[in-house]
Design brief:
By secondary structure, the protein is of the alpha+beta class. It has a single domain, classed as HIT family, subunit A (2-Layer Sandwich). 34% of the residues lie in helices and 19% in strands. The longest helix has 21 residues.
């Protein structure tokens, strides 16, 4: 059975897309720790991050770096925190979270609340920053 992320990749479930390549997708987390919280996934469904083949694994992190830099230009923050947990959805993914302290990466804390317009504006703004990077 396909994961929710595979359904996003196939277009069966909508997302707030930030960027994509032929093998990767970055989209806003709909239950974010902070404004700008973005997920980077391989389009190929692989459960565990360490099972991703080496070339794609490297691509994921280089792509995450580009997306993270774009998030920094849009969302005021000290850093972009990176987290890989792998328990919540059985599809490898990297969390990119704007942070100002280590406690901002606490996945048990109350989540940020954003409107559809907030999500749409963020996704478009971060995507535009990626385009300007080229």
């Amino acid at each position: 059975m396909p994961t929710i992320f595979s359904k996003i990749v196939s277009g069966d479930i909508p997302c707030y897309k930030v960027a994509e390549t032929d093998r990767l997708l970055a989209f806003l987390d709909i239950n974010p720790l902070a404004q700008g919280h973005t997920l980077v996934i391989p389009k190929q469904e692989v459960d565990y991050i360490f099972d991703v083949e080496d070339e794609l694994y490297t691509e994921m992190f280089l792509f995450a770096k580009q997306v993270g830099r774009a998030i920094e230009r849009v969302v005021k923050c000290e850093r972009i925190g990176v987290s890989i947990i792998g328990l919540e959805v059985p599809h490898a993914h990297i969390h990119l979270v704007p942070i100002n302290s280590i406690s901002d990466l606490d996945f048990t804390k109350t989540r940020a609340v954003l409107t559809r317009e907030d999500f749409k504006h963020l996704a478009e703004s971060i995507g535009k920053e990626l385009i300007h990077e080229d």
